[in-house]
Specification:
The complex is a heterodimer of chains A (about 300) and B (about 280). By secondary structure, chain A is mainly α. Chain A is built from 13 helices and no strands. Chain A is about 75% helix and about 0% strand. The radius of gyration of chain A is 24 Å and the shape is flat. Chain B has about 280 residues and is mainly α. Classes of the chains: A mainly alpha (about 300), B mainly alpha (about 280).
Chain lengths: ~300, ~280
Amino acid sequence: MLRFVTTRLLNMVFVLVGVSLLTFLVGHLAPGDPILILLGNNKSPELYAQIKAAYGLDRPFIEQFAKFAWRALHGDFGLSYAQQGQAVTDILARGVPVSLQIGGLALLCTLAVAVPLGTIAAVRSNTWFDNLIVSIALALYAVPNFILAPLLLSVDIALYRRGLPSLPVAGWGTPAHLVLPVLVYTLGSSAYLVRLTRNSVLEVLREDYVRTARAKGLSNRAVNARHVVRNSLIPIVTYVGPSVAFLVSGSFVIEYMFAIPGIGYLAVQSLYQRDFPVVQGITVSLAAAVVIMNLITDISYAILDPRVRYG
Amino acid sequence: MLRRIARSPKALWSLVALGVIVAAAIFGPSFWSASPTFGDFGNIMAFPSPEHPLGTDSLGRDTLARLLTGLRVTLVVALFVEVINVALGVTVGLLAAYYGGMIDQLLSRVTDLLFAFPGLLFAILIAGVFGPAVSETYGGMGRLMLTTGALALIGWPMMARYVRGMVLSLKSSQFAEAASAMGASDAYIMRNVLLRNAVGMVAVTATLDISGVIISEATLSLLGLGIQQPAASLGLMINDARSYIGTNFTQVLFPGLVIVALVLVFSFLGDGLRDVLDPKSR
């Protein structure tokens, strides 16, 4: 286990250096001169040189990257181009909690909806209930969130027009703003998790130890609660771990459609504005989140399932 | 092979549906001659009418015409992305599994690296950073190729990893051992033993994967980073129409239905092909 964790940690360092290099390279190769945009109408050669030096863009690539990487290790991604005078870290610090709130709530709702439904569907497989759940999950799986969101909004607007209680269509600030985006998120990811849970439970139901438990005369309820559900939860951990990192990034589409000032929205806006320091900051911190969550997932996998042993 | 597909209703019907969709994309624009870029300013955000069977968008452009050309764009991007994914994925996956060593190490490092970007992030980055300059220099066709390239870049490692796993298990099978015991060359074993046994499942995986590529392309275009106006893309049409969702929901509904239909057709076709081609399920 110790050896596994050390190799994984070394690998993690490699991946993070690689991701930073790749991201930095993309920003470096990007066509267009950000300083010219910054200068606007004030194009004097002295000012140009001064700003270029202030952002460190007059240094050779390797030196720029080394500086970027060293600073990034200290949680400093430099200054934004578009929001002048603001540190990228401060901009990130405003976006992350927003995405975390919305994503965390969505993850909790998904688990609360999908795990029980998937379990019940599997335990009563091939009944009308199972068929209903599976069909709904398939239908929702085929409807991407960028179609679901506008259609829910049209219902919401129709409610508003008739003077019925309705929800805000976009923006951020009150609990009411959370409802629609979390709903879209939950419906979308539940469609996948229900099927995952159902398959996992079905597989456990065929295991020998379940047959043994039944053979020794345990009631159906006891078998399902103690032997089936607990063991079928293991694959779900592999879903939850990485999806935490995805949720921080917010689904880009959901934050974009509902104008929620989270990380996903910020990433797209910064790309429009060609604000590369912010883009780099977001990419590198998200990659770090993904890699760390994957490691935690693998470790918890070994703890939950005693059969899993890493060399 | 064809006879086996004909016996699986799922594969057969989804193949028929796909045929209809592809025919609509190829021949549709010549039957419905309305221009996808002409703005009928007297009819903006119109509901379906005899003149515009599916209504018009916010610039009064005919939605049926835009849907048909958008469908072409979607299918072309999906096809090219998947061809690149399969070509790169099979080559790299096969070599990595067969020879191991350096190339295997390299593959797993590259996949580790690309999997660290959550979801579409890397494609968004590439398409967003290089998009405006590519549009300026090479126009709409260049942008289409950039979108394709960005999606293939994040897609192929998954396929390579899948092929690698499958080839590793085939390599340890007795028929592969027998072939090498008979003195068959590496190239022969790879081509005639490993590849021939893997090709069915690769086809299944690629078909299922197309659904994801279609959604990804629509997402990129919707975020304004993929296909650009005045060209049509299903994602672009949805983004254009969603601001008017309160007055006319049909303009989101129609491109949305086409995307849902495409996703379902490719999912069913993949499942159907699996029933036909997977040796384990036969």
